[in-house]
Amino acid sequence: MLRNEGVPVREISSFTAFPEVLEGRVKTLHPRVHGGLLYKRGNPKHEAEARECGFEPIDLVVVNLYPFEATIAKPDVTFAEAIENIDIGGPSMIRSAAKNYESVTVVVDPADYDVVLENMRNNDGETTLRLRERLAIRAFIKTSEYDRVISNFLEKEQVTEASFSVSLPLVTRLRYGENPHQSAALYGDFNKHFEKLHGKELSFNNILDISAATNLIGEFEEPTVAILKHTNPCGVGSDADLHAAWEKAFATDKQAPFGGIIICNRPIDEVLAKAIGEIFSEVIIAPKFKSEARAILQKKKNLRLIQLITSAAEARSTIDVRSVCGGVLVQDPDTANQVPLNAVTRRQPTKTELNAMLFGWRVVKHVKSNAIVYAKADRTLGIGAGQMSRVDASRIAVWKAEAAGLSLKGSAVASDAFFPFPDGLIAAADAGATCAIQPGGSVRDAEIIAAANERNMAMIFTSIRHFRH
User: Fold this and answer.
1) How far apart, in whole angstroms, are the C-alpha atoms of residue 311 and residue 331?
2) Annotated catalytic residue, options 46, 196, 200, 230
3) Environment class of residue 237 by beta-carbon count within 10 Å: exposed (0-12), middle (13-18) or buried (19+)?
4) Which of 99, 200, 288, 300 is catalytic?
């Protein structure tokens, strides 16, 4: 391509006076290449050695690395093919050029091409030291990211426990962290999934809530509205009419949503915008805001309107990382959706009860442990979150439902982990629940099943736990 454009070029083998060998594995790994990159211009000793060794100065390095990440993303890629797409010469040249940035310009991203060209036009064919410094930093970030992808792939493929590393680009510095005295920043590709259409800049806590809301709404294919506060669901409702779904979600708890997060998995129209605009919210998230709805909501200058550009499933992180004293914990995200449904009581659940249990099960997965959710087939009725004992979580959920004027008669109760004692289940039955869904696995399962049978409750064990610490 360069030749066709009339650019004078030289084959690397003519530059090094050494042929490419080992099926192209060795091309640029040569003293004439790295000597031309690394010798210090203006240093008498380096200049003399360069002349003696025949090093020609290389002042600009533009490298596109072998597409290792794209290669391993192919479903039919072989391990051997992946190995052959590990670039050795490219990163070596990048690092040599970046180390000698005082004299050498290194470019690793096509997005920088125009910047470099403009800088050269303004400086008689040279680049400024300031630009070279910035490009050198980008170069080392690039090679570190490249190595991280390779090491993570090899560790996964070879099942070898070695180390964990992650390198993510800076998205933005945040005003502060969880509290005003904490500094914070956002890294990764957040802006690939979310676009802020209106409102103040996002805070650390906003971003946490947006992530939790997106993970929750991803559980539902039917039109659904969810309201969250401090990453916990306050209410969730589903209905073909999204306004009716909102009313179901909001009815669960009309106090906690103040200053909360609202998320919909369908476009927000004028009717819904008027309804949700009646309460104070920090953030509203939807795949689209119709023009009339946006005009209504944008009257609130501090309200953040966030468009979910991709699907909720695509936005979800592939790893869950938590900081701990002296290190980090890394796990797969909790994406278990298809679970075995083992009815363990004498009475089998009705279809209506089963749908209510499954609705509650999808929500309780996103409630801080210990977690209890009372639900119907299309809405939450009461939510108890983050309690030290499960029976307390159940009592809070019952109290929340009573405060909201909602009856739990005929409801389903969902528990994120097993009931350790019958008291939690008995409390649910006393509140009006006729069925329960829980993982099972307690040493007292027999007692809990007996308590359910005594109250003619239907109960399902899923064998899947959804702890959320």
Assistant:
1) 22
2) 230
3) buried
4) 99
Q: Return residue ranges of the chain for CATH 3.40.140.20.
A: 187-315, 342-461
Is omega for the bond preceding 370 within 30 degrees of 0, making it cis? yes
Structure tokens belonging to residue 15: 């530059």
Asked if 327 and 459 count as a contact pair (C-beta separation under 8 A), the reply is no
Residue 99 annotated in active site: yes
CATH architecture of the domain formed by 342-461: 3-Layer(aba) Sandwich (3.40)
Regarding the domain delimited by 12-158, which CATH topology (the fold level of the hierarchy) does it fall under? Rossmann fold (3.40.50)
For the chain, residues classed under CATH 3.40.50.1380 are 12-158
pLDDT in tens, the chain (469 residues): 889 999 999 888 878 778 777 777 787 778 888 888 888 888 888 878 778 887 888 899 999 888 888 888 888 888 888 888 888 888 888 989 999 988 899 999 998 999 999 999 999 899 999 999 999 998 988 888 888 888 777 777 665 566 666 767 889 999 999 999 999 999 988 999 999 999 899 999 999 999 999 999 999 999 999 999 999 999 999 999 999 999 999 999 988 888 899 999 999 999 999 999 999 999 999 999 999 999 999 999 889 999 999 999 889 888 888 889 998 888 888 887 777 789 999 999 999 999 999 999 999 999 999 999 999 999 999 999 999 988 899 899 999 999 999 999 999 999 999 988 898 899 999 999 999 999 999 999 999 999 999 999 999 999 999 998 8
CATH architecture of 187-315: 3-Layer(aba) Sandwich (3.40)
